[in-house]
Amino acid sequence: xxxxxxxxxxxxxxxxxxxxxxxxxxxxxxxxxxxxxxxxxxxxxxxxxxxxxxxxxxxxxxxxxxxxxxxxxxxxxxxxxxxxxxxxxxxxxxxxxxxxxxxxxxxxxxxxxxxxxxxxxxxxxxxxxxxxxxxxxxxxxxxxxxxxxxxxxxxxxxxxxxxxxxxxxxxxxxxxxxxxxxxxxxxxxxxxxxxxxxxxxxxxxxxxxxxxxxxxxxxxxxxxxxxxxxxxxxxxxxxxxxxxxxxxxxxxxxxxxxxxxxxxxxxxxxxxxxxxxxxxxxxxxxxxxxxxxxxxxxxxxxxxxxxxxxxxxxxxxxxxxxxxxxxxxxxxxxxxxxxxxxxxxxxxxxxxxxxxxxxxxxxxxxxxxxxxxxxxxxxxxxxxxxxxxxxxxxxxxxxxxxxxxxxxxxxxxxxxxxxxxxxxxxxxxxxxxxxxxxxxxxxxxxxxxxxxxxxxxxxxxxxxxxxxxxxxxxxxxxxxxxxxxxxxxxxxxxxxxxxxxxxxxxxxxxxxxxxxxxxxxxxxxxxxxxxxxxxxxxxxxxxxxxxxxxxxxxxxxxxxxxxxxxxxxxxxxxxxxxxxxxxxxxxxxxxxxxxxxxxxxxxxxxxxxxxxxxxxxxxxxxxxxxxxxxxxxxxxxxxxxxxxxxxxxxxxxxxxxxxxxxxxxxxxxxxxxxxxxxxxxxxxxxxxx
Length: 689
Known about the structure:
This protein is of the alpha/beta class.
C-alpha cells in the first residue's frame, strides 16, 4: 500500500513537475530543509514550526526531519491540491489557527501549486491567520512574484525562497544545487520582482554561510516612507504661515526620531478631503475614506493622527505600543445661573444653618424659662414676707432685668440680637440668666467670627461657576451629546455603564469641531474628544468667536439640534474622564517596521521625551488658559445682591405688616362700640382688663 502511494505521488509529480522526480529519489530537498531548520534553530529562538504542504511534498517530512530536530514543536497542515486556500476548509483553518495560537515563528510552506501558495499568503495576511513577521521557507515560484502580490512582500520580508537547479548535463561531477533568495526589502519593488540571492546549498553545505535572516528594518538605507497625517492637537500640530505650513506635534517628533534611528526619509501628506473625512469611515462600497483609507489601501506606511488603541483600529492597521494615555471627556456649557442673591446664606451649609436655628430657639426658650422661674421666686418671696408681716423692699432693678426675657417673643428677639453681636439694654437680673448669657456670648463670638471669615472669602473670590462634571449630570441635563464618527456613538451604545448607554441614545455625529464648539457656547451641545484637544477648542473659540453657524451638512440627525439666540456661555471641560484611552502611531497592516519601532518608542517614553514634546505642543494653549483664568477679586454690585435681597425682603414684610395694621385699625378697632378716639387710654385700659 505504501509502495503504491509513493508510486502514485511520483507519477503525478513527474507528469506536472518534472523537477520533483530526482528530488524525491535522492532526498535532496529533505536534506536542505533539515539543514535550514538546523541553522534557524541554532541562530534564532524557535518556539514552534508550522509545516504546510500538499501530497506532492508530503514524503519530504519523513522520520529524519523530526529526528534531526528534537525538542521543537511542529504543527503540520496537509492540504489537498484542489483546495482553495483563499477560503480554506474547516480542518485547514483549524490547523492554521492552532499554529498561530501556539506562537509558531517559523513556517515551512512546500506547495507544488504556486497559485495555491499565493492565495494562502493573501488569506493569512488579510485575516492575520499567519504571522507575517515569522520566518518563512518557501519554494521559488514565478507566480508568487506577480504584480498583485507585491504588497505581500512589503509585509513578509523574513523569507527564504528555495529554487532548484538541475545538474549540468554532460558534466560528470555536476550535482543539483539550490539557490536561496529573499525579498529585496527595503529596496522598493517597482514593476518586476527580482529576489536577492542569500546563499547556495550544494553537496549538503552552504556556500557563502551568510546569515539567513537578518534584521532588514535596522537600516532602511534612506527608503522613502509615505506618512499620512491628520491635524489633531496635540499629536499633530499644523502651523500655517501664508502659503507654507509647518507640521509639528508629539507624533511628528516621534516619527522624526524613528526616521533618524531606522534611516528612512518620511514624505508627509494629508488624505484627500481630510477636513471632511478626518480619520475616515467605511463607505457603502466597502472602502474606507480619510486617514484609515490611506492605510487600508496601502497608500501610506505610517499614520499620524491620535489613533486610539482600540479593536476597531487594530483590525484595520497595526498600532505601535501606546506612547501616552489620554483623558477623553466632554466639552460642556457653563450654566448662566447667578447665585449672588444667596450671598448671605452661602457661608454656612444647610445643616449648619439648621443647627444655628435650633440653638437660637432652644437658647431663647431656656432664657424665657429661667426668667419665669426667677420671677416666680420673687413673687413667692413677697408672698412669704406678706404673711410674716415683714416690710417689703421694692427692688427697682428686678423688673427691668427680667422684662428682657419675661416674654417668649422678647426672649427670642434678644437672643437673636446677641447672635448679631448687639449688646443687651441692661444686664439681666438673676445669676442663672447672667451665667447663661456669658457662655452664650462666647458661642456667638465664635459663630460670628466663622461667618465673617467665610463671607470675606466669598466676597473676595470670583463667583462660583455652575458646571457639568460627571456623566450623571450630563445625562440629567438637556444638552445633546456629540462627537466625531459612528464608532464613537457605537462605543457609548455598547457601554456596560448605564449612563454611557443613555448618552449613546442622544449621541449625534458631527464632523466640524469648531461648529460643535459654537453649539456648546449656545448651551445645547456637549462635544466629545480628548481633553487636550478640547482645551485647544476652548481657546480657539475664545479667540475666534465669529465662526459661521451652518447646517450640519456632514452630520447625522442634525435636524434635532435647535439653535438658541440667548447669551453665549463659557466652555467647560468636564472634570471626570469618560475613559482613559491609550494612543499610538499607526503602521500599515502586518508592517515589518512595528517590532523595532516599538523598541524605540518605548525608549523615547522612558526618557521623558514624549512628556516634553507634549508640553511643547500645549504650551501656547495652556498659557492662554492661564491668562483667561486670572480673574481679579473685585467687589461689585453683583456681589451685594444678597444684602439688597435681604433689605428688599425686610421692606416687603414691613410694608405688609403696615398694611395689615391699617386694615385692623380701620375695620376692627374703629368699629368697636367701646372705641372713643378722644379717650384712647381708657379704651386700651378696658381692653386689657
